[in-house]
């Protein structure tokens, strides 16, 4: 079984005060990690600060975004080399909030995906459908469009090797509603089959996360599923005590699967 990756997406939340108050809990997470790997995605400005506390632990850093340019006159942007410089390992791209509020389209997201791979970091590519698209049974089409835009730009399916695809139905994010596990399974299998049709070998090196209103009370729906290799967690990751409960539950489950 692959190691499980739980990504804590803080979005536009947090402060020095918040981090300082919670730093003992953040460091404590490491004590519980045997089968899981945790990656924290605070806003850019706190990445470096948090990094000093998580060095030599199984906790790593995820950035919530990256620019496609490497340097120059791009006010307000942060480059991949800067993120590498401060020890970032993963970068979330294609999150529905960036698509919606920052007009990021599939071409830009594809460029980011390829840039991240070329620079040796790991993209967490978020894909998923809106409520409306689900109603019209467009989930597969929407998700494959995203994959295709990357394939088209890179012209090489191997670009997906050692990457993470986070299936996040947009209607489930922050809504308290989770996706039906059979539907999650179907879409993950569909994507796996699609990528396998280009190259069977790489599919074992693609991780699939689920994201969208995951919490302690509903996590059981997603455990014991070999096709889910981790979670992308928003709201609960800001309540460190609750987040630890969640991590412990996942660890316990993975432990019983191993023994
Ligand atoms: P949520 O956010 O857990 O609050 O639904 C998930 C996400 O947006 O990645």
Brief overview, please?
The protein has 259 residues and is of the alpha/beta class.
Describe this structure in words.
Helix content is 42%, strand content 17%. It is an alpha/beta fold and 259 residues long. It has one domain (4-258): Aldolase class I (TIM Barrel). The chain has an eight-stranded parallel barrel, surrounded by five helices. Helix 3 links the parallel strand 3 (59-63) and strand 4. The radius of gyration is 17 Å and the shape is globular. The two termini are 12 Å apart. The mean pLDDT is 96. The site of 2-phosphoglycolic acid (PGA) has 12 residues, from strand 8.
Number of domains: 1
- What is the CATH topology descriptor? TIM Barrel
CATH class: Alpha Beta
User: Which CATH-level-2 architecture?
Assistant: Alpha-Beta Barrel
State the separation between the terminal residues, measured CA to CA. Answer: 12 Å
Compressed to H and E, one letter per element, the order equals EHEHEHEHHEHHEHEEH
Neighbour order of strands in the largest sheet: 1-2-3-4-5-6-7-8
Ions, cofactors and other bound molecules: 2-phosphoglycolic acid
């Amino acid at each position: 079984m692959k190691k499980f990756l739980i990504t804590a997406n803080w979005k536009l939340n947090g402060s020095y005060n918040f981090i300082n108050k919670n730093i003992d809990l953040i460091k404590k997470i490491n004590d519980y990690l045997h089968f899981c790997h945790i990656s924290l995605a605070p806003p850019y400005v706190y990445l470096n600060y948090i990094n000093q506390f998580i060095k030599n632990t199984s906790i790593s850093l995820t950035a919530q975004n990256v620019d496609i340019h490497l340097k120059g006159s791009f006010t307000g942007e942060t480059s991949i080399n800067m993120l590498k410089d401060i020890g970032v390992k993963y970068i979330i791209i294609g999150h529905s909030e960036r698509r919606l509020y920052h007009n990021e389209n599939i071409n830009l997201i594809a460029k980011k995906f390829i840039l991240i791979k070329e620079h040796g970091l790991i993209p967490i590519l978020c894909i998923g459908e809106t409520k409306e698209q689900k109603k019209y049974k467009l989930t597969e089409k929407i998700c494959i469009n995203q994959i295709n835009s990357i394939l088209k730009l890179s012209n090489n399916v191997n670009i997906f090797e050692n990457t993470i695809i986070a299936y996040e139905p947009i209607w489930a994010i922050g809504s308290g509603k989770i996706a039906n596990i059979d539907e999650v399974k179907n879409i993950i299998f569909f994507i796996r089959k699609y990528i396998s049709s280009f190259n069977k070998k790489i599919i074992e090196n693609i991780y699939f996360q689920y994201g969208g209103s995951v919490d302690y009370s509903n996590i059981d729906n997603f455990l014991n599923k070999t096709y889910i290799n981790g979670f992308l967690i928003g709201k609960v990751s800001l309540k460190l005590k609750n987040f630890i409960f969640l991590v412990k539950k996942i660890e316990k489950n993975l432990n019983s699967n191993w023994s």
